Amino acid sequence: MFNKLEDAINWIVVQQKFRPKTSLIHVKKAFDMLSLDLSHIKKVHVTGTNGKGSTCMYLTKIFVDQGLKVGTFMSPYLVSFNERIKVNGENISDDLLLKHINLIYLVAAKYKDETKETLSFFELLTLTSLSVFHELNLDIIVMEVGIGGLLDATNILNYDASVITNIGYDHMKTLGNTLEEIGLNKLGIVKEHNHLFTTVDKSLYDLFNNYVKDKNAEIMIIKEEDIKILSNLPNIIEYKNETYELSLLGTYQSKNAALAIEVAKFILPEITHESLNQSLSLVSYGGRLEKVLDGVYIDGAHNTHAMKELINTLHSTFKMYNINILFSALSDKEPIKMLEMLEGHVKSITTTAFPDTRYESLASLPFKFEENPKIALENLIKNKSEQDLVIITGSLHFIGYIKKEIIPYLK
Description:
The chain is an alpha/beta fold.
């Protein structure tokens, strides 16, 4: 048991990060030890290669604005560990988080005594969130998948609605090397008689339709042609002949918002266009083309799929600016491919380092390199003109480090 939240968090983060899994039996056993009845709570499950977090935040804001008590489970975090569990859109309090990590600590010890096995970091975190949500007697919970879907710890529940944002190349060692393999893993969140909402690419329509049919489930595919982008700055879209203003920037946000609209209508059939538009225009979510200083933005693009979307946004939302990139990434996220994609679309690229065990030096690559990210950012800011923007990207872990450790000293 822990008296300080720092000690509790330190315990949970040092647990095994990844372990081979062939089923969810072990997580379900640990969940059963908690004796939580969540059957009365509405549940939404969100997976996909990119856009999960934004979709979760859109849904959270919509539900909160409708007067519902809402729990949201997300990952990773940018600045504070508490960002992972939200109550009515706000980060969980230190006291509540400490209380429930202590509860899970006891369950983990009991589980180890009975099975001689340990639970992973993400499994423990998922159980912590569910313990919190049960105590608060919420109306609805929005759960973001950690990796994949089929064998993700969040998949131990039955959900009212499932969401798959898109399918791209990421976590291939775990999910497979083709879009079809990755798609099948994420489709693992779809259960019998479930309702799936997706903006997946048309090349995967057959795979999705056949899978859902086999599950006797329902599917709604939102197609690219269903959405019109009326303005990039501000971000205004037309969807099903109705106009919505989105507070989050980026062309890719149009699909995330459309998913949130459809899921909200499914959960709350009486919700009005006015209510949806109001909520979508007021969503706040860090690290997604977030302005952190004058002319400086951070964006969490951390794989080739997300980088393609960021480049599209550079040519639309920021087409009137010269873009200077500050880049760093984890070694398992194809940093060279992401950098090659950016070349030719931006004015300059500077690579840098940051403290993470999965970071490997980018110094040998044919790009300007500055080891110290604070110096790198200061130089970019000092040399930029009024027609220049600095965009910091490549990794959610990297931009989180920049936002927490460097930006406060530059304001």
